[in-house]
Amino acid sequence: MVRGEIKAFDAFGSIAMKIGFVGLGVMGAPMAGHLAAAGHQVVVFNRGDAKSAAWTAVHGGLAAPSAADAAASRDLLILCVGADDDVRAVVGEALPALPDGAIIVDHTTTSAKVAREMAALAAASGRAFLDAPVSGGEAGAKSGKLSIMIGGDADAVARATPAIGAYAKAIRHMGGPGTGQLTKMVNQICIAGVVQGLAEAVAFAGKAGLDPALVYQAVSQGAAQSWQMDNRWATMARGEFDFGFAVDWMRKDLGLVLDESRRNGARLPATALIDQFYAELQNRGGGRWDTSSLIRLLRA
Fold this sequence. Notes:
Elements: E1 4-5, H1 9-12, E2 18-22, H2 28-37, E3 41-45, H3 49-59, E4 62-63, H4 67-71, E5 76-79, H5 84-94, E6 103-106, H6 112-124, E7 128-131, E8 134-135, H7 137-143, E9 146-151, H8 154-164, E10 168-175, H9 179-207, H10 212-219, H11 227-238, H12 247-264, H13 269-283
Parallel strand pairs: 2-3, 2-5, 3-4, 5-6, 6-7, 9-10
Antiparallel strand pairs: 1-10, 8-9
């Protein structure tokens, strides 16, 4: 299979797969829900029984008592957990329970290093591991319109596509193990820069005595337009940040970016500076504020 965008969701949509899903947070729960709605046989696992019980009450399916039980006899095991060590722990527990030829699809944002480690571990046991971080946030997960960037074996990507298509608007195979995570890092670099620029623009408009709603109407139809502008301009102007992608999560992601840049030699001066701005928000108790809360540092 040639690398690139995969669009043939409809051609595979009628095939029911046996899927284990680990991690029912704000992203994982709706993603697993789309799988169930598409007719796949879904078994879920989450640390702590409450989220699993709540999910099965709405979507049916089964709740497993462990990651290994969620993996048993499954075609796919899909992960949406926290960080590198969480992925290592789940894969270490679940891999022996997966049948030969099964695929692990990891939607967690991690380092490229751990993606390569897990891919090698899976391949050595006759399974496959795909690093498949997502972009689109909670809204994209709920609407089933995530953008997914995948690293790993091409045949495994093709086999996993029918399931992934249940909650994706775009899937792109980027290359070998780790390339999905590297692409997600590019995504986060772009977002950090755009959000900081947007924060400065909204703050400048306020200092200039402009009506923020009128400014948005004037600039959002031209080259300055972005998803962040369309979805965050008004809330930034109102000082509302109790939603969305948390500062804590962005700092985790930018930490991965900056660590990788030290290995590959990329110069990221603006990203490093914005990471420190987010650190200041954490120091002010804003770890769970939306990333657009950068504007608070400009209004201090």
